[in-house]
Design brief:
This protein is an alpha+beta fold. The protein folds into four domains: about 10-105, no CATH class; about 145-245; about 255-345; about 355-445. The chain has helices at about 10-15, 20-30, 85-95, 105-135, 145-170, 180-190, 195-205, 210-230, 235-245, 255, 355-365, 410-415; strands spanning about 35-45, 45-50, 60-65, 70-75, 260-275, 280-290, 295-300, 315-325, 330-335, 340-345, 375-385, 390-395, 400, 420-430, 430-440, 440-445. Strands 5, 6, 7, 8, 9 and 10 form a six-stranded antiparallel β-sheet that branches. Strands 13-12-11-14-15-16 form a six-stranded antiparallel β-sheet.
């Protein structure tokens, strides 16, 4: 359990959990003790609760488990967390809730959560034991379903290889004239071949089609992926796992959680949302305080669904992470949390531009298909070279260009006021994409 003397979440960090701006506004209006009865806080387990008067005859029962955080409210809202849970956390962040013994309805909820976790852990252990027993059995040949998928992927990659050859033979300068449809047709055939990750890679070629050198690089990397898959049985297991993941072979969550665990105080240094009307993706970038190891936790949501918001920007989480296998283990799952998130003033481990590029070069050696890499830069300022090209410059005079697609970083310029700042960002082939900065200990984001 964390020391209660440590700082609580700020109001900004609590509001970052809200599913939309209207929930933020509603939570602020409810974050007053006049709207609550029997509100309390317990440090063990770390939790909040209270009764909020609503439109119904009975007050809404609201409680929050601060370890994850997790929420429960008897209100009819389909938003998660609802405005009542957010308001309760705002009151707590302002030290407006007294410490008390939790009432019975809160204890029952906590007990049911513990029971569900234990049951889920037991089921996972049973699945792992079953998987281990099957692996210990004599080889019976490949599973028919897996074999059918492998055959479809193989046929799809054969067609892709011919298509790649045609792009070069016909001249890549003319490839952009076909527009998005030119790339989408090949990507759709890869989806049919059950290679969805590779299909997404082919679709992204449309964004670099007007830049011949970038396009040739991306086509070459796809060709390398095809060649690697054909020789997967001759490659080191970690590299083979990377290739299969880049093609789109799924890996069960249980299989990842059955692997080695890395415990650390994980600092959440960045959160970025991407996607379209079909699928939204939220990327949580973490950095180990002791290990200085980067980690990427993903959350996916379809239409009408909410993205996960349980990793709070600007906090550290004492947790076990399980990394997906690969030549460069980066994506991870949170396996076990040991304490509530705790805010930090500024992340540790920030480096110069030269050291950041050195770590990127090492990562690229391990995985040449890497399309983004987290960097934490120390004492940098945003400078403008041209109206469309900005850089961040460190104290050694080394600079990194910003991705022109993100636009001018006025948010960073305004927050820093010309002073050096610590900046967390993604380094990509198109340039740097900052997503968080710390200016004089204050967290700011676009």
């Amino acid at each position: 359990m964390r020391d209660e003397a440590k700082p609580r979440l700020s109001a900004e960090q609590v509001l970052a959990l809200a599913p939309d701006t209207s929930s933020q506004r509603a939570a602020r209006s409810l974050a007053t003790l006049a709207r609550w009865r029997d509100a309390g806080h317990s440090p063990d387990p770390p939790s909040l609760w209270g009764l909020c008067e609503g439109s119904g005859a009975n007050p809404y029962q609201t409680c929050v488990d601060l370890t994850e955080p997790a929420y429960r409210c008897s209100c009819p809202s389909r938003k998660f967390p609802c405005k009542h849970a957010l308001a309760l956390m705002l009151l707590w962040s302002a030290d407006g809730i007294v410490t008390a013994e939790p009432p019975e309805w809160v204890t029952e909820w906590q007990t049911s959560r513990t029971d569900r976790k234990e049951q889920a852990a037991a089921r996972a252990q049973a699945r792992n034991e079953s998987r281990a027993a099957k692996q210990a059995e004599p080889e019976q040949g490949p599973n028919k379903t897996a074999q059918r998928r492998a055959d479809r992927v193989e046929a799809g990659l054969e067609e892709l290889d011919r298509w790649l050859t045609d792009q070069v033979r016909q001249g890549i300068a003319g490839a952009s004239r076909g527009g998005y449809a030119h790339w989408d047709r090949m990507a759709s055939r890869l989806v049919d071949a059950q290679a969805p990750a590779l299909a997404s890679t082919v679709r992204r070629l449309a964004s670099v089609a007007a830049t011949p050198d970038r396009l040739l690089t991306e086509l070459s990397l796809i060709r390398l992926l095809v060649a690697g898959y054909r020789r997967a049985d001759q490659l080191p297991p970690d590299l083979a796992a990377t290739i299969k993941a880049r093609i789109g072979f799924p890996l069960a969550t249980d299989a990842v959680l059955a692997g080695p665990r890395v415990r650390d105080e994980w600092a959440v240094v960045g959160v970025r949302d991407d996607g379209d009307e079909r699928l939204m993706v939220r990327r949580f970038w973490l950095c180990g305080t002791a290990t200085n190891r980067p980690a990427l936790v993903l959350s996916f949501a379809g239409p009408g669904q909410q993205l996960a918001a349980d990793l709070l920007l600007g906090t550290t989480v004492d947790a076990d992470l399980c990394f997906y296998p690969g030549a460069l283990p980066l994506r991870a799952l949170v396996a076990t949390r040991y304490a509530p998130a705790a805010p930090f003033t500024e992340p540790a481990g920030a480096v110069t531009v030269a050291r950041a590029l050195g770590s990127y070069a090492k990562a690229l050696t391990a995985e040449p298909w890497l399309d983004r890499w987290p960097v934490l830069l120390a004492d940098v300022v945003a400078v403008e070279d041209t109206p469309v090209r900005w850089h961040v410059l460190d104290r050694d005079g080394e600079a990194l260009p910003l991705d022109p697609a993100i636009g001018p970083p006025w948010w960073l310029v305004a927050a820093a006021g010309g002073r050096p700042a610590t900046v967390a960002a993604e380094w990509t082939p198109a340039g740097l994409r900052p997503f968080t900065a710390w200016c004089d200990g204050r967290l700011v984001r676009p």
